[in-house]
Every structure is written in C-alpha cells, then in structure tokens.
Amino acid sequence: MVIAESDISILIPTYRYRDKVVRAVDSALASGAGEIIVLDDHGRDGTIERLAAYSDPRLIVRENDRNLGLWENHLAALHMARRPWIKFIQADDYLLPGGLAAFAAAVDEGVSIVFGCPLYKNEADGRMWEFYHTTRPHRLTSRHVQEACFYFGWLLGSPSQILLRRAAIMGDPAIWRSTMSADFVIGAITAAHGDTVILPPGTLVCESHGKQDSATETALLWLERTANSTAYLKARPEQGLRRLANGWVRMEAERAVRKLGRGILRREAPVADLIAAFAAIFKTMTPADLVQIWRDRRLLRAAMTFRRTRFVPFDLDRLIPELLERRSSP
C-alpha cells in the first residue's frame, strides 16, 4: 500500500527564521502534500507577514500567542495535523524536488517510519556533505534499528529527515519538552511499531549553522536530556525499548563523564546541578538492567570499537548488510 503525497501533513515549526522559512515553505508547496502547516512560536520577526503573500489553500499559517519552546511548538503543530502521515520540516531545512514523493513511495502497511538520508549544507560557505551514504533503499525491523543505534548513535536523525505514521506518534507532553531528546524518543517509539525504510540522499537538505539547538546545547542540558530520555524509554511497553535505553546509557557513559567535566570546568551551571543530572542518567539502573547490559556486552563492545574506528560518511550499503547478519543476544 503506497500512500499518496496528499496523505501527508507537512509541519513547519519556526522561530525567528523569517528568511529561511520561505525556502522551506516553497519546497513544501512544490510537493503534493495534503496540507502544509507553519506554526510560528511567537517570533515576532515578520514571518507571519512574509507568508501572508501565499495563496495556496493547502497552506495554514498560525502564530502562538506566547513562546512555547522548540519541542513544545512541534507538538502544537502536530495537534493541528489532519493527515495520517506526518512530515516535519524544520524551518532551516527544505525538501528537494521529488523528495516527498520518494518518502510516500517507500510506505506500505508494515512501515511506521521512513528516513531520508539528508544532504547537509554549511550555511557559511555552501559546502555540502553526507553523514550516511547509500545508493539504494534499505528496510530494517525495529530490533535492527535499535541495535544500529549502538553503532551510529541516533540512526534516524532529526524530525526533518523522517516521515512518521501519525497513529504511532506519541503526543505525551512529557516527551515534547526542552529537557528531553524528543527526536530520539519519538523516533524510537514510532520505529518500534513497524519497519523502518532508509532512503538514499536526495530527498532533502539540512542546513548547518551556529544557531541550531545541537550547537547551543549546554553540558547540563545534554545530561538532563540523556537522563530523561532513557528513563522515559525504559518505562515504555514497546518491545526492545528498555534494552535500547540500557545500551544507550552504556554507550554514552564516557561522553557523560566528559560533559560533566566540561560543565564544571567552564562553570556552565552550578556544580550540584551538573552532578545531579549526571547521577540521574544511572539512577534508574536495576539489577535486571545490568544483566541485560552484560548479555549485550559483545554487541556493545563491537559498537564501541566501531565508533572509535569508523568515520563519516558511513557506507550503509556495506554496513547495513553486516548489521543484519550479525548475531546478537536475545
């Protein structure tokens, strides 16, 4: 069952990206999306006035009456969507011609999420690069997606890079908040409800610049997000998510130590707050969790070696078959 582009809601949350959001909107309107929703998070920068010139009936432009925050604004846009599939486009990213059609063509009844390997573009000099390289689509089960995350980190990227089945997306406000890695949590839960299809580069461009959340994230915020996200996933009933969270904590332990040290040395936050956030990452570990990590020790050791010895762009045409063939613990 291939879906039509008209079955997709494109959601463009934005905050003070007046000039960039026009490019995102133009790319969305060039597609066959059923609706395009732009939600301005009370940026007051002329975005609403700039978009008033558009007349396409599919385009809905709204502004929050107060600033909600990054992930909270994503959730507010999600509540407005009326189509069965959701495609976020963050305001500094944009679809390439035919990109949405490629996402739609990858869907069948067993798929819950489609990931388009992005092309990245440096805002300052226009340089383009790939993080993942593949020449053909790949299909992974939820278990293989979870295990791939031990190797690559969060495999499925940012909201701009994925198409999600609406019925599988959690609308819990506890996820969509600034102290949560909402892209990781939402993606992991959605991927647990079906298969994931990975598409080659060519569906979208993601711009890289210094104002992005990933560039401004403090050590304290990283520690809080890691603690909150893994704790949330541990409490979910979907198969494999507790195992994913446990393995994630193990794989990120060294980085957590570095973040703690950096935060203290740079005086980014009170030392007590940094230590508390660091401790929160590990405090939910139970004896059963430690047993699971021990059972996965070979997998996690191989993933650690991979992270230290492999470099981008990752060749998924070679690496995914290796992952699918790898024997892992039950």
From TrEMBL:
It comes from the Bacteria. Keywords: Transferase. The keyword Transmembrane helix does not apply. GO terms for molecular function: transferase activity. Residues 9-142 form the Glycosyltransferase 2-like domain. It holds the Pfam family Glycos_transf_2. This is Glycosyl transferase family 2. It comes from Aquabacter spiritensis.
